[in-house]
Amino acid sequence: MTIFEKSVKGRKGFKLPEGSVSFEGKDLPDHLIRTRKLALPELSELDVVRHYTELASKNYSVDKGFYPLGSCTMKYNPKLNEFLASLEGFTEIHPYQPVETVQGALQLMYELKEALCEITGMDEISLQPAAGAHGELTGMLIVRAYHLSRNDTKRNVALVPDSAHGTNPASAAMAGFEVVELKSTKDGLLDVEELKKHLNDRVAVLMLTNPNTLGLFEKDILEIAKLVHEAGALLYYDGANLNAIMGRFRPGDMGFDVVHLNLHKTFSTPHGMGGPGSGPVGVKQFLARFLPVPLVRKSKDGSYYLDYDLPESIGRMRSFYGNFSVLVKAYAYILTMGEDGLKRASEMAVLNANYLRKLLSKYFKVASERTCMHEFVVDGSEFVKKTGVRILDVAKRLLDYGVHAPTVYFPLIVHEAMMIEPTETESKQTLDQFAEIMGKIVDEAIKNPDLVKSAPHNTPVKRLDDVTATKNPIYRYQ
To answer: Which residues are in the Glycine cleavage system P-protein N-terminal domain (predicted)?
Structure first.
């Protein structure tokens, strides 16, 4: 029931004093004058509190249960980080304040930037982009600026593997590039021979995720980097899967020139529901002059300042300096974990994924038999043929067992795909329980397929008509 349906005429929760401002005699434009009474629900304060508390209790979160999302690391968000980000010195500052009054915030940003440079093997980083895809666009605009600075105007092609995140081709196109898709090998890796066929003097960049979207490490990455650079192009790193290699391998050491990171994935800051996010972009030194302004710098006297003196900068990518509270949480996470902790997190993410992959291979075909990194993909095509139950149905049925559904039907190169990422924060007991639930659903699909096809049954909202909801969305109460 919506809060409007709970409304009772005449019921009040709070009464404001009469307004002291009168608009009589003011020449207001017609479109700013309300022609009918504001249609707000009428409830007591207790009614409102109970309504939203009840809604909140129905929300699913990583605090409540297993969240094996796949492609988007949903690790536990330490409450310590939330506490630190809420400190008065961080929350009660304003980006228009003089830099001498926000030295602590600038120091945090500078030290975070330095830490991210060390983790990625980059030379300079901008914290300005507000999300992963925003970072992608920033990185691709830097690639474009680099080639134009050399008067290499014919380089307008971005090579993107068919296993790439969907935002990769979109970001490249927004930056003005023509996107050319590269086919993967049957093993799910970038086809080096296919890459060679497409490398020419029109190619500006290869966008690559390593490990890739199937959770597989691109073992030929050094050869790939060499081929791309010999062709005069740049190598771009989508940092969505950094959680698998953090502390073990650095994109910069693999030959990548530009990196975007998702602080809202790898570094434990909240993620989902559209934000908040943070997508810093790192570059090798020869590209640093193109980064967005301003950059956080440290003076010789130890003070911090914002540097706008970058004549070749691509300009601002947003107002101010990123989502600051997210930066605080990522900084706290890195300091808490330390070098050994970050490395351990990656090791446990890979261990958990491979353990779960082995457990689930009893019930489903796995897209690749190779040792995976932090995630793996189930190929449900044989399961669908056998039972008539789709992978989407399995995902819906998981909700009845109190587990959030993983990503389905992605990557597109796997038919009836389910992408699973357990993350490093989950225990063996949780993984065993998840595998047991999946086994039960497989058994249900064989014995009573209609039960799975009509799921979920125990959730506050039953199965929705996704097509109608997409084509004819209703955004407000009518």
So the answer is: 25-302
